Fold this sequence. Notes:
The protein is α/β, with parallel strands linked by helices.
Amino acid sequence: MIVLGIESSCDETAAAIVSDKREILGESLLSQEEHKAFGGVVPEIAARSHLEHIDEIIELCVKRAGIKLEDVDAIAASSGPGLIGGVVVGVMAAKALALALNKPFVAVNHLEGHALAARLTSDVCYPYLLLLVSGGHCQILVVKDVSEYERLGTTIDDAAGEAFDKVAKMLGLGYPGGPKIDKLAKEGNPHAIDFPRAHMEDAPYDFSFSGVKSAVLNHLNKCRMTGEPIVEADIAASFQQAVVDVLVDNAIRAAKDYHMDRLAIAGGVASNGALRAAMEAACEKEGIRFYRPSPIFCTDNAAMIGVA
Ligand code: KG4
Ligand code: ZN
C-alpha cells in the first residue's frame, strides 16, 4: 500500500509518500519563514502560506517518489490538534484529491503522527514509552499499539518547546528559539547558573516550566540592575540543562515504574542535542532500549502522518 501524507497544522507545509513497509518513497517540506519577523507563528499568515504552497509541495513529493498520483492507495492528512486555518488547508487538499482519485481519505491526529515517528526509522515494538516534546505538547505516553495510548503525564503550564521559544525571545535570539538555544548552549557552561527543576511529588510524570522561565527572567533583571555581565551562552546552557534534567528524570521514572524497556522521544524538542545525549546515557544506565528518530522526523513532517 502507498499512502500520501500531508502535514500543515503549524508552520511546515509538507507532503510524503510512504509505503506499508514504512519506507519513505518521496517527500517535500517547506518551513515557513514569514513568521520570523513576529517572533512566533502567526496563524493567519501560516494558513495563507499553506494555501499558496500546498499544491506544489504535493506535486514535488509525488515527482520525487517517481510515481503518479493515481498510484496512491490512500490520502492522509494531519487533522488536528493544530492551528485550524492550516489544518483546514491540508485536510481540504487531501479530501479533494481523495474525491478526484476515488481513494480513501484518512484523518490523522497530529500527536499520533509524532507518537509513531520512531517507527519510521526503527523497528520499535509495542508497547514503548514515549516522551513527546513539541512546541504545543509535553507528555509521557505508553504507546500500546496504533490508536492505543495511555497518557501518564503532561505539562501543567508551558510545553517544553514553548519554554525554549520564550527563553530564546528573552535572550533576543529570534524564532524558533529551540534550535538557537541548542546551538548557543554548546558554547556555555550548563552548571553556571542553578535554575530550578520542578518535580511534583503527587504527579511525578507531570511537567512545569513556568518556574524555570521566570528564573531566567529574574536572572536577566538582576544582571541589568547590578551591572553583572549577561553571559548568554551560560544562560542558554544552564536553562537547557534544567529542562533536560526534568525531561529525562520524569521519563526514566515512568519507564521504571511501568516496567518499560523501550523508550522513544518525539516532537521538535526531541531534536535537541543535549536531550538526545542525556536520554541515551540514562537509558543505557537503566538497560532501556532508546529510540530517537533523526531530527527531521522529530519536528513536524508528513512522513509520520503517512505512516500513522
Ligand atoms: O514538533 P514541532 O516541529 O511542532 C509542534 O508540533 O509544536 O516542534 C516545534 C518546537 C518549537 O518550540 C521549537 O523551538 C522546538 O520544537 N525545537 C527545539 C529544537 N528544535 C526544535 N527545541 C530545543 N532544541 C532543538 N534543537
Ligand atoms: Zn508537531
